[in-house]
DNA sequence: TTAGGGTTAG
């Protein structure tokens, strides 16, 4: 049948609906369907609910409107509607529908279970899990993923070990979980076990594990995944390559990131952004800006993420004026309205560049309510330049937003300490004590030969601490020479702690 | 119709 240039029937509508890329398209098909009287088949309205639900609150509203007037509903209609509500965070309403269902299948249970898991309500999820009449690998994986996200790797492991049949998905979840937490040995051990198990990797598994490695700087596992990809002649999609570039860049292997990037047959905006950020983060400002011009030459339109990278590159390489110029060019030449992240970059740029007053002004004049990241950035800049008075003002704002963050107090104490104002250092400490804020000492870790070495302030627990501190002294000495400084205290960072 | 999926300031 042909109407308005569209050929479709009961069988093809679900496919067409699946391919919709916007709410308007779904609406158009919906009115076609109603006009053509193709509503008798349950697959069509079910597909409509599903497609509507892909497009946010408005879509879910439209789906609900349809769901309510449907004469026949099968379990899939209910499941789709519940899943749609969960996508927009309507857990309460989803639960109500779930309770009203005339019959439930495994998917219904798994869907509502995932709703609680995604909301971080693991106790309720556990309760549901126990009440389920039967469970499959999806139910187990849903719980597993919840515990991993909550950082409870002990419970995650219990569920992983106990689950009856493990597909690639639970393996991916637990390995990514360990990797994200920086539990290297277990992550690697399980990765090896998974490979021996003979499971075939797919895009999602590779991307998920690589991004977990990127997050915690876990190069060793990232390299393993990369060599599996090459050994298996895995079809390296743009997404997988992007994940590799990002992982290498975040783990500090810029040369590897660069070589993957260069060998990519096809690149998208994310590939360019990932490479640009890689250079920017590691202080290769010129290289980052070269990437920026090259991507434009090759026809890629920069987006907001690109400009975060560009501004970050300018900050970390000391290109203050250039950074300011890029910031104004964003909107004027590229039509990208700066978001709060961009203002954050600017405050960092100006602040680190010593233009603290300007940074402070920008915080007050920007069209966003400053958040704790903004104030935190400014506080760090005050610390860098020993701007005691400004730091106190900034801290007041910061404490309004996050009253009990120990890091902020420590930062202020450090600023007073650097200025030799020991009375105020003591007063900050007293203030922390009086409201019960405890300073957590920051720990940093590096990974050598699959072994993670962790450091805290004045840490002497490492077997080679002697050599380590000798090296720090040498670095401090060399830096002074290079920078032609005499009496300045050069902060040499060991982990997050300035010695 | 249900579990894992890329880039974003400090």
Automatic annotation (TrEMBL):
The keyword Manganese does not apply. It comes from the Eukaryota. Pfam families: E_motif, PPR, PPR_2. Keywords: Repeat. GO terms for biological process: RNA modification; system development. PPR repeats lie at residues 74-104, 105-139, 167-201, 237-267, 268-302. The keyword Repeat applies. PANTHER family: PENTATRICOPEPTIDE REPEAT-CONTAINING PROTEIN, REPEAT (TPR)-LIKE SUPERFAMILY PROTEIN, PUTATIVE-RELATED. This is Pentatricopeptide repeat-containing protein. It comes from Corchorus olitorius.
């Amino acid at each position: 049948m042909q109407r308005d240039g569209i050929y479709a029937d009961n069988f093809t509508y679900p496919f067409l609906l699946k391919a919709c890329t916007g709410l308007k398209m779904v609406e158009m098909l919906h009115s076609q369907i109603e006009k053509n009287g193709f509503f008798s088949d349950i697959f069509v309205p079910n597909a409509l609910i599903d497609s509507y639900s892909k497009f946010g609150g408005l879509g879910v509203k439209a789906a609900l409107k349809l769901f309510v007037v449907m004469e026949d509903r099968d379990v899939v209609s209910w499941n789709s509607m519940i899943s749609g509500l969960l996508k927009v965070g309507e857990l309460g309403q989803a639960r109500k529908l779930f309770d009203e269902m005339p019959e439930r299948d495994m998917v219904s249970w798994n869907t509502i279970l995932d709703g609680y898991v995604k909301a971080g309500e693991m106790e309720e999820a556990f309760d549901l899990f126990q009440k389920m009449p039967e469970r499959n690998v999806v139910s187990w994986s849903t719980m597993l993923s919840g515990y991993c996200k909550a950082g409870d790797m002990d419970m995650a492991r219990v569920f992983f070990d106990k689950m009856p049949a493990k597909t690639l998905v639970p393996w991916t979840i637990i390995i990514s979980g360990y990797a994200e937490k920086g539990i290297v040995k277990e992550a690697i051990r399980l990765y090896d076990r998974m490979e021996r198990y003979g499971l075939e990797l797919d895009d999602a598994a590779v991307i998920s594990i690589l991004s977990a490695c990127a997050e915690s700087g876990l190069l060793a596992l990232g390299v393993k995944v990369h060599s599996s990809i090459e050994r298996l002649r895995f079809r390296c999609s743009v997404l997988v390559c992007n994940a590799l570039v990002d992982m290498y860049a975040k783990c500090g292997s810029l040369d590897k990131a660069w070589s993957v990037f260069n060998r990519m047959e096809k690149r998208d905006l994310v590939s360019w952004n990932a490479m640009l950020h890689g250079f920017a983060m590691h202080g290769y400002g010129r290289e980052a800006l070269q990437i920026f011009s090259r991507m434009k030459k090759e026809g890629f339109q920069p987006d907001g993420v690109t400009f975060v990278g560009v501004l970050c590159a300018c900050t970390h390489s000391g290109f203050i004026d250039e950074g300011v110029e890029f910031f104004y060019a964003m909107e004027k030449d590229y039509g990208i309205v700066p978001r709060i992240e961009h203002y954050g970059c600017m405050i960092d740029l100006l602040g680190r560049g010593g233009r603290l007053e300007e940074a402070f002004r920008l915080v007050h004049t920007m069209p966003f309510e400053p958040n704790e990241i903004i104030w935190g950035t400014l506080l760090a800049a005050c610390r860098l330049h020993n701007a005691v008075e400004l730091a106190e003002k900034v801290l007041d704002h910061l404490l309004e937003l996050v009253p009990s963050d120990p890091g902020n107090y420590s930062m202020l104490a450090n600023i007073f300490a650097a200025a030799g104002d020991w009375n105020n250092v003591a007063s900050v400490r007293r203030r922390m004590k009086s409201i019960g804020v405890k300073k957590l000492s920051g720990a940093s870790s590096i990974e050598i030969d699959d072994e993670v070495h962790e450091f805290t302030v004045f840490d002497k627990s490492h077997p080679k601490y002697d050599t380590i501190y000798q090296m720090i002294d040498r670095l401090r000495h060399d830096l002074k020479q290079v920078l032609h400084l005499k009496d300045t205290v050069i902060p040499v960072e060991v982990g997050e702690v300035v010695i």
